[in-house]
């Protein structure tokens, strides 16, 4: 066997082990974090305005995280240090939760986590692209996602009960989960990269405007790649709808449905987990055989079933479980499409610039959608807002199937020539 093949196999093995370890040790934190908005309302009595601000902060931080990785285009040797730095900073504030009980500090912790958790994505996806070939990369990524939800299903069996019976337990569980996540840094620093990484040739010359340069890079990319721009429009519509209903969701769970931590944990961990694990491999197979505009439309249509099913929850909480099951199916497709789109569209180019645009677009819709949703909460009932979100999703799914929104000649992530 030749030396390059051995080296490539070594890099792939080290990368695979590091990502599996990271997924295993970080999933408890992610599982707790998904209940944080519910905890704010249920345990800390957050107002609708505070919930709206919290919902807006999370995607808004994506704008700032976009800048964290913007220089990777011109200095690819910093991939590992960029990734490790963001990983550590995302968890550090949660170590203070046992000592600071202020609701605004919790919101600060969440904002920092969102900022740096998003910031890890471009470097992580580029590391994957450099160290694993396409088929193995997609297989690993989908299996990691399923592994995380299998772990969350197990957590769902006891986390909700624990939070219901021990008031304030989340203040201890978050720091413990953060410490567990931080332990993976010892593995991350051992990920090897190819030698003599070359600069991406399709990059604008750098200017003096450090703030505007990443924006110029993104506009240049969207103009030069209309297929990628069309893809972004689909996700923009569906993502806007989900962010719009976020403030209403937790008012609906707590005030209208009188749900407990256990009720939501069962729905979010177990039923959503079943939806994800049962559909991820089908989505991965479709990723290589179905035009990407069709997949995007199907994902948005799947998300529309979430608010639609929740409308029936006053009749029985079983509809909440069903809603999260549908959400899990859609989320599995969304997760693969959104995260892998950078490596799919990039082909031989640097994928971090595509992933960076994904993050920027999350931030842009996050500036508007949650705040509009919070304002709507003061005017309309959560039930009405769910209907509006459902309609927006249906419209997005329909627009995604119109010819002018299609990326012509683009199937499964590759331009057909």
TrEMBL record:
Domain of life: Bacteria
Keyword Transmembrane helix (UniProt): yes
TM region(s), chain numbering: 20-39, 51-68, 88-116, 144-163, 169-187, 231-253, 265-283, 295-318, 357-376, 382-402
Protein's name according to its UniProt entry: Major facilitator superfamily (MFS) profile domain-containing protein
PANTHER family the UniProt entry points to: INTEGRAL MEMBRANE TRANSPORT PROTEIN-RELATED, MAJOR FACILITATOR SUPERFAMILY (MFS) PROFILE DOMAIN-CONTAINING PROTEIN
Lineage: Bacteria, Pseudomonadati, Chlamydiota, Chlamydiia, Parachlamydiales
UniProt keyword terms in alphabetical order: Membrane, Transmembrane, Transmembrane helix
Annotated source species: Candidatus Neptunichlamydia vexilliferae
Pfam families: MFS_1 (PF07690)
Keyword match Transmembrane: yes
């Amino acid at each position: 066997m030749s030396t390059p093949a051995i080296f490539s196999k070594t890099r792939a093995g080290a990368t695979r082990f590091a990502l599996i370890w990271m997924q295993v040790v970080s999933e408890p934190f992610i599982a707790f974090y998904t209940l944080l908005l519910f905890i704010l309302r249920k345990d800390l009595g957050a107002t609708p305005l505070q919930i709206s601000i919290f919902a807006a902060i999370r995607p808004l931080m994506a704008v700032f995280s976009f800048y964290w990785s913007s220089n990777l285009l011109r200095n690819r040797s910093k991939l590992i240090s960029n990734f490790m730095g963001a990983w550590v900073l995302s968890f550090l504030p949660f170590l203070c939760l046992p000592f600071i009980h202020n609701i605004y500090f919790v919101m600060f912790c969440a904002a920092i986590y969102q900022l740096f958790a998003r910031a890890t994505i471009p470097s992580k996806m580029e590391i994957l692209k450099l160290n694993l070939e396409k088929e193995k990369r997609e297989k690993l990524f989908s299996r990691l996602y399923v592994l995380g939800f299998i772990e969350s299903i197990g957590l769902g069996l006891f986390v909700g009960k624990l939070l219901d019976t021990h008031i304030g337990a989340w203040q201890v569980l978050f720091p413990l989960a953060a410490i567990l996540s931080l332990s993976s840094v010892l593995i991350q620093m051992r990920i090897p990269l190819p030698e003599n990484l070359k600069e991406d040739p399709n990059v604008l010359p750098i200017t003096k405007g450090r703030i505007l340069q990443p924006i110029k890079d993104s506009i240049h990319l969207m103009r030069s790649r209309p297929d990628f721009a069309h893809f972004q429009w689909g996700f923009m519509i569906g993502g806007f709808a989900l962010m719009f209903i976020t403030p209403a969701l937790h008012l609906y769970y707590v005030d209208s449905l009188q749900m407990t931590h256990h009720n939501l944990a069962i729905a979010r961990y177990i039923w959503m987990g079943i939806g994800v694990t049962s559909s991820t491999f089908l989505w991965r197979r479709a990723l290589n055989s179905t035009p990407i505009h069709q997949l995007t439309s199907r994902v948005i249509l799947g998300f529309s079933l979430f608010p639609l099913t929740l409308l029936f929850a006053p009749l029985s909480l079983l509809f909440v479980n069903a809603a999260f099951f549908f959400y899990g199916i859609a989320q599995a497709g969304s997760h693969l499409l959104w995260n892998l789109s950078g490596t799919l569209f990039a082909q031989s180019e640097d994928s971090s610039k595509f992933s960076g645009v994904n993050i920027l677009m999350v931030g842009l819709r996050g500036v508007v959608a949650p705040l509009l949703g919070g304002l709507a909460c003061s005017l309309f009932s959560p039930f009405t807002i769910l209907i509006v979100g459902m309609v927006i999703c249906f419209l997005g799914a329909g627009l995604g199937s119109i010819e002018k929104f299609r990326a012509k000649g683009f199937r499964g992530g590759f331009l057909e020539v």
